[in-house]
Amino acid sequence: MSGSLAGITVLVTRPAAQAARFIELATHAGAECIAYPTLVIERVPIDAAMRDELTRTEWDWAIYTSANAVDAALAALGRLPARHTAAVGRATARSLEQRGVSVELRPETANSEGLLALPPLREVAGQRVLLVKGTGGRDLLRATLTARGAIVRTLEAYRRAHARPTGEAQSALRAALARAEVRLVVVVTSAEVLEALLDLSDAEDLRKLRTATLLAPGSRVADVAAAAGWTGPIVQAATAEDEAMIRALQAARSTGEPPAA
C-alpha cells in the first residue's frame, strides 16, 4: 500500500476524534493530509426518568449505529441490560468490544440496510429494541423494525454541531486550492459531514472545492453531493469505514479516476 497515493492531497473532514486512523492509513500510502473537521460531537444530556427507563427495561436488542453512539451511551448509562447487541459497522463493534460488550450481530456492509437484512432482525415481532444513535439522520432502522412488529425505543445519545476549522487548517486548504498542480481529494463520511463542509466554505473556496475529486461512502452521499452542485469526479466507497475508503481511493487512483500524479 505504501506509495499508492503519492502526489495526492487529501482533505479529511470527519470529526477530529474519528480522523486519526484514516489519516494514518492515507499518510502511510503516500498522501498528504489536511485535517479539516467540519463537525464536532456533543453528548445529549439524559434526564433521570429516561435513565431509569433505559437501565431497568430488559431489552431484547440494543442496536448501536456508530462508535459515537457507543461512546456517549456507555459513558452516560454504562452497560445496558440487553439480551443481544448489534452494531452497524466494524468500528462500532470494536468500540463495544473494547468496553467488554459482546456483539452478536454486525453486517458486512456498514449500513442500516445490511443490518436489517440479517435473519435475527427479520422476525422481531413483540421484541423490545433500543436503538442508540445521534440526533437526526436516517429513520430507516426505527421505521423498518417497527413495521416488523418490534417495540422500538430510540436513544439519541449525541448530536453533531458545526466545527470551525483552525486558522492553520483553513490556510492549508486555501494554499492547496490556489495551486493548480495540487491534486486534491475531499473525503466525506456522511451527508451531514458534506453539508457542514459546504456551509462552512465561503463562495470562492466552495467554487474550487466542487471541482475536486470527492470520496464518499456509497450512492446516497454521492447523490447529495451531485444535488449540491459537485462537478468534480465522485469516487464511491462501499462503506464509511477507514479501510474501505482507502481501498476505494486506491482503486480509483489505479484506473485514473481521481487526478493522476
In short:
The protein is an alpha/beta fold and 261 residues long. 41% of the residues lie in helices and 23% in strands.
Description:
The chain has 261 residues and is α/β, with parallel strands linked by helices. It is 41% helix and 23% strand. Strand 6, helix 6 (140-147) and strand 7 form a beta-alpha-beta unit. Helix 3 runs parallel beside helix 4. It is elongated.
Overall pLDDT level: 92
What count of helical segments does DSSP give?
11
- Give the class from helix and strand content and strand pairing: alpha/beta
What is the overall silhouette? elongated
Please provide the count of β strands.
Answer: 10
How large a portion of the residues is in β-strands, by DSSP E?
A: 15-25%
Low-confidence stretches: none
Secondary-structure element order, as H and E?
EHEEHEHEHHEHEHEHHEHEH
* Helix percentage: 40-55%
Q: Which sequence of strands runs across the widest sheet?
A: 2-1-8-9-10
* Cα radius of gyration in angstroms: 20 Å
- Biggest β-sheet, characterized? 5 strands, parallel
Q: How far apart, in Å, are the first and last alpha carbons?
A: 16 Å
